[in-house]
Amino acid sequence: MRILVTGASGWIGSASVTELIGAGHQVLGMARSDEAAAKIEALGAQVVRGSLDDIASLRDAAAQAEGVVHLGYNHDFSQMAAAAQTDRAAIDAFADVLQGTGGPLLIASGALGLPPGRVGTERDLPQPGGHPRMETAAYTLGLAERGIRSMVVRFAPTVHGAGGDHGFMAALARIAREKGIAAYIGEGLNRWPAVNRLDAGKLVALAIDKAPAGAVLHATAEEGVATRDIAAALGRYLNVPVESVPADRAQAHFDWLGMFFGADMAVSSEYTRELLGWHPAHATLLEDIAAGHYPGE
Questions:
Q1: Which residues form a coiled coil (predicted)?
Q2: Predicted confidence band of residue 4 (pLDDT cuts 50, 70, 90)
Q3: pTM for this structure?
């Protein structure tokens, strides 16, 4: 199958491209820069030029494919509403091309925002008033009524691995190095789900091959790692003390990350594993921290 991948040169996208090609698909990777194009070519995919805010380029690229893996997104928290609008317009462009074909349309969403305090499942709905991206996910699932095999992958907030991760773990490591302590909030018993980027890429390829229309899938290899264990692993590698920070000082210590790091959000992927035959096999979050993949520099 010919699959268009947005975000193909990115952290999850590059792993997904490799897995899709390995599964026998022909991949068209969207690039908006020469640097991204070179990365995509090195992965063995065909480059198509375009960007998420250029609807014509999205339509043209999708018209060359039989399905779409939409992983590109603007993660600037200061422009959440605008990013969600751009994302919705991109999905509409893909849907117009794929309508009635039965072709797959996979989009990325997040596990953040599921009901806290218990293990979340694929059947759970996000809490109201959360990230606007959640509304887009619900909209995408409804595209199944237009003859599209639409699906949503909720990725763990920590997609970890060797090299190139600029997400939450990289930010935590940088804060620990700058402030001289690896901190957690309160007792540190709250849990963060995690998945290795290579396992995440495998899940994307399996979903394209096997997931039915309207499927919600969880890319979480570990249901929840206690935040004090994350801090302890960072402390050992960075050789800094490990300390608790009171909840009322979390924002001052962690900056923007403080609003997330105190959340308790264990997330199951049991249904996803059974449906797709997905078996995460790569390093765990604590193993990747211990291996030095998060130097905080």
A1: none
A2: very high
A3: 0.95
